[in-house]
Amino acid sequence: MNQLRRAFLKNAGSVGAVAAAIATGLLNPVTVFAAAWNSLAFTTKDLPGALKNAGYDGAAESSDILIKAPDIAENGAVVPVAATSNIPGTTSMAIFIDKNPAPMIADFQFMNGAEPYIATRVKMAKTSLVRVAVKAGGKNYIASREVKVTIGGCGG
Amino acid sequence: MAEAMKMRATMKGDVVDVKVLIQHPMDTGLMKDKKTGKLIPAHFINQVFATLNGKTVIDAQWGVGIAQNPFIGFRIKGGKPGDKVAVHAVDNLGTKFDGEVVVA
Predict the structure, then answer these.
(1) pTM, rounded to two decimals
(2) CA dist., res. A91 & res. B43, Å (int)
(3) How many independent structural domains does chain B possess?
(4) Per the domain annotation, does A115 fall within a domain?
(5) What confidence category does residue B5 fall into, taking pLDDT thresholds of 50, 70 and 90?
(6) Interface predicted TM-score (ipTM)
(7) What is the domain count for chain A?
(8) Which residues of chain B are within 8 Å of residue A115 when distances are taken between CB atoms?
(9) Of the candidates A30, A112, A154, which has its C-beta nearest B57's C-beta?
(10) Does A24 share its domain with A90?
(11) Which of A17, A42, A87, B2 is most buried, judging by how many CB atoms fall within 10 Å of its CB?
């Protein structure tokens, strides 16, 4: 209880400080990034750990997440991946690649009318499952698709 | 570094379709320089957000697994021609990348 209150007061203080900084022109509000970078999740080397640290653990397999990616990627340095979630109330989407040195690739949050869709290009070290995890209505969902890689894209 | 970002936003039905290309090496920190044999330090974009008329629509965090010269495509409901879409990114060395485009 006490600790909660303390955390709350601490947060309130820092939010106030940020607001004051914006007001005095110290920070340009356009370029203030919302959350701190999740370095723990992005540097975790195993998939279950990365899912957990990114907040996507305990995800149920879902066929309502559609992953578009090539069956065979000749160049692992640039693999196009697009994903759409048809799960109502999708608020975020993250991409994981099992066999990469760090499986977590990216995490996208959707708000204010953004559709639960992302297209991007990823690096793949070798043939692996590409997983897309989604948060919707307080639950986690996941889907996967295998991409065969002829030449790896993570060096070494 | 506006010149490092290319953007396009077009209407697809009632949805704004946005495509963004950013020039960036996205060095993982795991690759060796072929001449010196030394590791190239990690240098990658790790935070990106997009706005429609100033309101945040996408808020993203990236790791080193996003390919060199990153591409992202996303879609926004409730936009119309003339609206402004902006993208802001920052890399692990603090370099900022900003782009803005009017929906066509």
Answers:
(1) 0.85
(2) 29
(3) 1
(4) yes
(5) very high
(6) 0.95
(7) 2
(8) 15, 74-77
(9) A112
(10) no
(11) A42
Q: Which residues of B touch A118 (CB under 8 A)?
A: 72-74
Residues pairing with A26 in the sheet: none
| One domain, residues A64 and A120 | yes
B63: CATH: 2.60.40.10
**Confidence class for position A15, pLDDT limits 50, 70, 90:** low
Chain B residues within 8 A of A42 when measuring between CB atoms: 46, 61, 63-64
Q: What is the pLDDT of residues A57-95, one digit of tens each?
A: 999 999 999 999 999 998 999 999 999 999 999 999 999
Tokens of A123: 């690096």
Q: Which of B76, B88, B98 sits opposite A114 (nearest CB)?
A: B76
Asked if B90's CB is within 8 angstroms of A156's CB, the reply is no
CB contact under 8 A, B74 and A154: no
Structural domain for A60, as ranges: 36-151
Strands, sheet with B5-12, edge to edge from the N-terminal-most edge strand: A65-68, A79-85, A117-122, B71-77, B15-22, B5-12
Q: Which two tokens stand for residue A87?
A: 């799960």
CB contact under 8 A, A30 and B88: yes
Whether pLDDT at B10 is above 80:
yes
CA-based nearest residue to B75, from A119, A67, A134, A122: A119
